[in-house]
Design brief:
Elements (H helix, E strand, L loop, with lengths): L1 H12 L12 H13 L12 H12 L4
Helix pairs in contact: 2-3
Length: 66
Amino acid sequence: MLTQYKRYSQLTAGIPKTLSDLGIDDADMAQIGRMAAVDPSASTNPAPFGTAQYAEIGIQTVHGRL
């Protein structure tokens, strides 16, 4: 039900379903992962992530899996 509501909201508000719908690709996520890893707020994350983990989360969102 929540997933259906989320998708309905995306459609009615014109929100893209995935980051790839905005023109973002895996290569962009590699760069964003590098930036996220050195961002000052990264040190407050209770689960320390490195560049690869941030990039992987981003890649999953590019393809609509998160």
